[in-house]
Specification:
The complex is a heterotrimer of chains A (250), B (324) and C (696). By secondary structure, chain A is of the alpha/beta class. Chain A is built from 6 helices and 13 strands. In chain A, helix 2 links the parallel strand 4 (57-64) and strand 5 (82-87). In chain A, helix 3 (95-106) packs across helix 4 (128-136). Chain A starts with a strand and ends in a 5-residue tail after the last helix. Chain B has 324 residues and is of the alpha/beta class. In chain B, strands 7-11-6-1-4-5-12 form a 7-stranded parallel beta sheet, sandwiched between helices. Chain B has a 5-stranded parallel beta sheet with strand order 15-14-16-17-18. In chain B, strands 8-9-10 form a 3-stranded antiparallel beta sheet. In chain B, helix 3 packs across helix 4 and helix 5 runs parallel beside helix 9. The radius of gyration of chain B is 23 Å and the shape is elongated. With 696 residues, chain C is mainly alpha-helical. Chain C is 52% helix and 4% strand. Chain C is elongated and about 100 Å long. The chains are: A alpha/beta (250), B alpha/beta (324), C mainly alpha (696). Chains A and B meet through helix 3, helix 4, strand 7, strand 8 and strand 9 of A and helix 3, helix 4, strand 7, strand 9 and strand 10 of B.
């Protein structure tokens, strides 16, 4: 099978964020960037499918600044065959623009399957996978937590608000990948060395007009320090009140 | 006229709360740009009866599309139906629910419109709609300016509160646009609710060595059952002792989870455990040792005997859930 | 020359030639291993041969079995002189040392021969008794049989008997030929007094020949036996690197830029010739396995099996790749190893032999990951075998070449990469423990153009683990109370990569280590103190491989020094009368020979303390179970190591377990909790901090 995986490079989710000088970007000093978690799951799925199904090709795509090449190399060190870097200057929050750039590139690729993470940590918007599918006119399954391919058809399990559903679809198709589907493999040093020799192609991203722009970024109010609600069962009514009214989780 | 089209999401023949939230947000937006709110409802036969209720929240017009195919989310038909009507609107508003996550980008692509997703507030001026959206997994609030004649906006559930703005809507029955559903739903696993996966569950109740014996995990299971949408987790000490299966283990060497609510029962909070659950949105800890490290990461702590606190909490949660 | 002499000469030449061929073959196999320089430090190496080899110091760590072995060994050396005399006299009739030696010396020589013949005979008898009646546990397991040992012991016994019988018969035939100095031979001779001189002479010749033939047979049996160690172990001790203070205990440097196909070891060619010599030198005594914390608690690892597997694989693959010209020379079996091993001894085609490898076919992944890197095996080995080196190289292969490792350590690798600590905590929180303590960072001091006396390297456990943070604070309080000008790196500190290195991820290790060295060099860091033995070992002993040279002092040594200089303001009373069992950290003890400082620290801080020792302590101490990256892995097989250790510490009657390592702290704490024990676990820094006089 010929599989495309579209990935993203995002800051580590454990980071403590600061807002940068002009107030419309995060301060990147000291932040560690790496392959987005969900992109990692998607790559693992692609690699496993090709391992199971015999000869195939996997190609990784990313829209991003030059630093994304490091992440593309990482994908290749995991086992992806080649990479395409669609170059932009900074983070793009216009999901449709990113989708257009990807769709223009994927259109003629002849891929049987195009995978995305269901969501990326930075934009946290779940747009690009589905919009790309729509632009390519392909069927799209979002948030797949299981994926099987057999004789030109796919079967996926999706988790939707507490319940699950099993869906079937024809190939070619776009699938966005949820967590829990597969743990991304850890690249071996052998893989890292091999990745240095694999082809990485760079070209400008065809974004089109960018119609969603960051005006400002701010940090949410500090999470209040934890508190001891009380002692023993007597504390339960107050705890429940806080869960309902303050934390709003009940 | 700069009208706003809102997708009033339904389940079965009921309008969902997130659908009403979307109508309220659409109303505010329409008022700001000086237009009407047109709601679109798609559902199985019988949904038409609920349409008028949308007027209660500010819909000037309601398009009702009754179709047996809409018993479940028919992604391509709904998208085509909305897209066909949306071209002349100022904005399409929908919830950022499981359905809306899928539907929003489809509409944006079909309409070649910009989209802002998972937004918590919005305002409009001129050809710019300004929204706030929690990015970076809620760690940064991003303000986005969306430009152009038509925008797709999806709303974070519960960020907007349904507000009454009663009027009597015009109601129009529409037929679904023709589209091939290439993705076929083969099976809906409602039954799986009882056994939520740790990675999926919005609530996790987790037990540690403080429970003292495997049979006492009943307390944890009962509390999870009271929440209804909770999975049961455990610490390494507990899975090592064989009280719970290894698959239940949360921590550095087990599952790493970030649910909305994490209730730690009789867990002291060893580094290995904290590494797996620290990112939960709200953490509740119940432990008899006030010095236990778990209280350092907990939002709410109760110092006390788990055998006394947990049953009381179970009852209280059950009671609170009943009121919903 | 008589016909008999010619026949004898022929026999000797054939036997010696056969032996030489075997030695040549074994050396050829050994050269399949990678080259490595082991000829430096000739003086130290010679010292090791004299101490560990000749004086049998490590053998004697077990007094009874040790003395038994030492008797046979020393007997061998002494009796070899006699054997040479005998072999020469077989060719040149009438040859005797008497012709060259002064009378006194020759008498001494004669006494020594008879004395050791008797002693060795006794030792052989005891050895049989041990194996047949006592059945020591360490001699069992790993599919190891006793037949080889019985054959060897039989041959040794036969040598002694034929020697004494020959002497006895000769003394009966020609009383003047056997002087009183050969007391045992003469005593045997009295038993033959009634024989005619002719018969006695016949008896002498028969036993003389038997003795000579057994000597030559023994020589040629060795290459087919685990008792090859008779030949190889002194060489092995000479070439070993396992016993030097200072540069011992470091993992092999590794060149990641090298243009190689694979990294680490999956078969014998990836090991060095010394690893293979280790295989030749193992007698399967099981001292290593008996001391192995993983093995003791029921894990699949046995260090002895690792070494035996190396030898088995050499014997299997050696002939196939060196093109063994003399098929009959190939040992079809190593007598001690019975044909029960998993797939290891079944006959195979040469193709299969080459397809197979040491990893998987002989040594499983599970065995390799069970190791806590505690060095107890190396410590116990009487012939200085390095079992850990093989394990480390094979772990490197698993991770670097095949990315195969227990799934649960992947988060540790990823977090090390992203967050600079094996646990996914925000780097921004690293120095949170120091809030309000008024401790400057190196950056603070640098900005003020100042330099501290010491840098306190806190470590990841000490920065993030709630329990370990208390140790960190206690140590910082001691430093402050003593007026030490110290600083921390704060958020500029991150893991030096040791856990990654121990888990085989050399690539990640070198990345982190080089980065740390850059930071330390930037500030021209003076002396470093740390409360973590793993940091202590890594920065002090292994950073030099990457060009980082620093003086690193563990907090036990540092506090002990401050106490001995009376610089620590202690309360004037005697403190609590605690009964304390100190648990030795492997990376402090066996890795760095720090045994007394933590104990002395406790004694100095608590004058009335009752310090008790469990049976396994100091260089025999049992690991807590967290070393070698085990901290980040599951332990689901057998008894938990920390529980085993807590059990033995608690059984000393102690009310307090003292540790000097944050990893040990976690393991001991978990162990006492698992046992529901109320014994408290304290770091030595906490013991001292608790005794600080209140500030005036």
């Amino acid at each position: 099978m010929k599989i495309a995986v579209c990935i993203k490079r995002t800051p580590d989710s454990e980071s403590r964020f600061k807002i940068g000088g002009n107030g419309s970007a995060i301060d990147e000093t000291g932040l560690k960037f790496d392959m987005d978690d969900f992109a990692g799951y998607a790559i693992e799925v692609a690699l496993q499918l090709n391992e199971k199904q015999g000869p195939g090709e996997s190609v990784v795509f990313a829209v991003g600044p030059d630093s994304v090449q490091e992440t593309l190399r990482k994908a290749m060190s995991m086992g992806v065959d080649r990479a395409v870097h669609l170059k932009v200057d900074g983070p793009v929050f216009d999901g449709v623009a990113v989708s257009k750039a990807l769709a223009a590139e994927l259109k003629s690729g002849g891929f049987d399957l195009i995978l995305f993470g269901k969501y990326a940590f930075d934009t946290s918007a779940s747009i690009v996978g589905t919009a790309t599918a729509e632009l390519l006119g392909l069927p799209c399954v979002t948030a797949a937590s299981k994926l099987e391919i057999a004789s030109g058809r796919g079967t996926a399990r999706r988790e939707i608000e507490g319940a699950g559903e099993i869906v079937e679809f024809p190939l070619p198709a776009v699938v966005t990948i949820d967590e829990g589907i597969a743990r991304p493999r850890y690249p071996s040093l052998k893989g890292i060395m091999a990745a240095k020799k694999k082809p990485l192609e760079t070209k400008p991203a065809q974004l089109g007009p960018v119609r969603v722009q960051v005006k400002a970024m701010e940090l949410p109010p500090e999470r209040p320090a934890g508190k001891i609600v009380g002692q023993g069962a007597a504390a339960v009514p107050e705890l429940v009140r806080l869960l309902q009214n303050e934390a709003k989780v009940l | 006229m700069p009208n706003v089209l809102v997708f009033a999401e339904s389940r079965g023949t009921d309008i969902r709360k997130v659908g009403l939230e979307a109508v309220t947000a659409a109303r505010a937006l329409a008022d700001a740009v000086g237009g009407e709110v047109h709601a679109l409802v798609g559902g199985p036969p019988g949904i038409a009866g609920k349409a008028a209720a949308l007027g209660q929240y500010g819909a000037d017009a309601v398009f009702v599309c009754e179709n047996a195919a809409f018993a479940h989310y028919a992604r391509e038909t709904i998208a085509a139906t909305i897209a066909e009507r949306a071209k002349s609107y100022r904005a399409v508003v929908l919830p950022f629910s499981a359905t809306g996550r899928d539907l929003g980008p489809r509409l944006a692509a079909k309409l070649d419109a910009p989209i802002a997703a998972d937004i918590v507030s919005l305002s409009a001026s001129g050809d710019t709609i300004t929204v706030k959206h929690p990015g970076y997994a809620n760690k940064v609030i991003v303000t986005l300016a969306v430009t152009g004649p038509l925008a797709v906006l999806s709303l974070r559930p519960s960020a907007f509160t349904p507000k009454e703005a009663p009027r009597t809507p015009r109601t129009e029955s529409i037929t679904a646009s023709a589209a091939t559903e290439r993705v076929a739903v083969k099976e809906v696993l409602e039954g799986a609710r009882g056994k939520l996966d740790l990675g999926e569950a919005p609530v996790i109740v987790s037990g540690g060595r403080g429970l003292r014996a495997p049979e006492n995990f009943k307390l944890v299971e009962d509390l999870a059952a009271a929440f209804g949408n909770a999975a049961v987790g455990a610490t390494r000490a507990v899975t090592d002792e064989g009280w719970r299966p290894v698959s239940d283990q949360i921590g550095q060497t087990g599952r790493q989870v970030s649910p909305q609510l994490y209730v730690a029962v009789g867990i002291s909070g060893a580094i290995q455990h904290l590494a797996g659950m620290r990112t939960a949105k709200t953490i509740v800890a119940i432990n008899k040792d006030p010095e236990a490290p778990i209280f350092k990461v907990a939002d709410y702590g109760v110092v006390g005997d788990v055998f006394e606190v947990v049953p009381a909490l179970t009852d209280a949660v059950r009671e609170a859930k009943k009121g919903h | 020359m008589k016909a008999e002499n010619v026949v004898f000469l022929f026999v000797v030449v054939v036997a010696a030639g056969f032996f030489a061929l075997n030695v040549q073959r074994l050396v050829e196999y050994m050269r399949l291993g990678k080259p490595e320089n082991r000829t430096d430090h000739a003086l130290r190496r010679t010292g090791n041969v004299l101490g560990i080899g000749i004086a049998q110091t490590k053998m004697l760590r077990e007094p009874i079995a040790g003395l038994m072995h030492a008797t046979i060994f020393w007997g061998f050396i002494v009796l070899t002189a006699g054997t040479i005399e005998l072999l020469i006299s077989g060719v040149f009739r009438g040859f005797s040392y008497q012709k060259f030696l002064p009378d006194v010396l020759y008498k001494g020589y004669e006494v020594s021969q008879d004395t050791f013949a008797v002693l060795v005979l006794g030792a052989v008898a005891f050895a049989y008794f041990r194996r047949l009646v006592l059945h020591p546990r360490r001699l069992e397991g790993d599919n190891i049989g006793h037949s080889d040992a019985y054959i060897i012991l039989g041959l040794i016994g036969a040598l002694m008997l034929t020697y004494l019988l020959a002497g006895g018969f000769l003394s009966a035939a020609q009383p003047a030929a056997i002087q009183p100095a050969r007391f045992a031979s003469r005593a045997v001779g009295t038993g033959f007094a009634s024989l005619s001189p002719g018969t006695a002479w016949m008896g002498y010749r028969v036993n003389w020949w038997l003795h000579a033939l057994v000597v030559l047979g023994f020589l040629n049996y060795l290459p087919y036996s685990k008792h090859l160690h008779v030949v190889s172990s002194l060489f092995n001790v000479y070439f070993s690197n396992t016993t030097w203070k200072g540069d011992r205990a470091v993992m092999r440097p590794m060149d990641l830029e090298a243009d190689v196909e694979t990294f680490g070891a999956s078969d014998i060619e990836d090991l060095t010739w010394k690893n293979l010599l280790d295989g030749y030198s193992c007698t399967e005594c099981g001292r290593c396995t008996a001391a192995c914390p993983a093995n003791i608690t029921g894990k699949p690892l046995s260090p002895r099996k690792i070494v035996v597997n190396v030898r088995q694989r050499v014997m299997e693959k050696g002939p196939a790749v060196t093109g063994d010209r003399m098929e009959f020379l190939r040992p079809m079996f190593v007598a001690s190893e019975e044909d029960k091993g998993a797939g290891s001894r079944s006959p195979r085609t040469p193709e299969q032999v080459l397809e197979h490898r040491l990893l998987d076919q002989y040594i499983s992944e599970e065995e390799l990951w069970a190791c806590t890197s505690c060095r107890a095996c190396l410590q116990e080995c009487p012939v200085s075998i390095d079992q850990l080196d093989v394990i480390n190289e094979m772990r490197r292969y698993l991770v670097l070449s095949e990315s195969r490792f227990p799934a649960e350590i992947q988060p540790a690798f990823e977090s090390l990469e992203r967050n600079g600590s094996p646990w996914a905590f925000a780097q921004a929180d690293r120095a949170k423990w120091a809030a309000g303590m008024n401790i400057p960072t190196m950056a603070d001091l640098h900005a003020r153009n100042e330099r501290p006396d010491v840098l306190f390297w806190v470590g990841c456990m000490g920065s993030f683990d709630d329990r370990a943070k208390k140790i960190t604070v206690a140590f910082a309080r001691i430093l402050q109370a003593c007026g030490i000008r110290f600083a921390i790196l704060g958020q500029e500190e991150h893991c030096h990569g040791d856990p990654a290195r121990r888990m085989g991820n050399e690539y990640l290790y070198q990345m982190l280590a080089k980065d740390t060295i850059d930071t330390l060099n930037k500030y021209q860091v003076p002396t470093i103190v740390t409360s973590c033995p793993h940091c202590f070992h890594q920065i002090g002993n292994e950073f030099p491989q990457l060009g980082g040279h620093y003086e690193v002092i563990h907090h036990s040594t540092y506090i002990d020094r401050l106490l001995s200089e009376s610089r620590v303001p202690l309360q004037s009373d005697e403190g609590k009368r605690l009964t304390v069992a100190y648990h030795d950290s492997c990376y402090l003890g066996r890795y760095n020979d720090v045994y007394d400082a933590p104990r002395d620290t406790i004694r100095r801080a608590l004058p009335v303390v009752n310090l008790v020792e469990p049976p396994r302590s100091r260089d025999r101490g049992l690991c807590c179970g967290a070393g070698g990256g085990r901290m980040f892995m599951e332990e689901r097989t057998g008894k938990r190591i920390n529980v085993e250790r807590v059990d033995e510490l608690v059984s000393t009657g102690a009310d307090t377990i003292a540790v000097a390592c944050p990893f040990c702290m976690t393991m001991m704490n978990d162990g006492t909790k698992a046992r529901g024990s109320d014994v408290q676990v304290l770091d030595i820094a906490e013991v001292v901090a608790d005794r600080l006089a209140p500030r005036v």
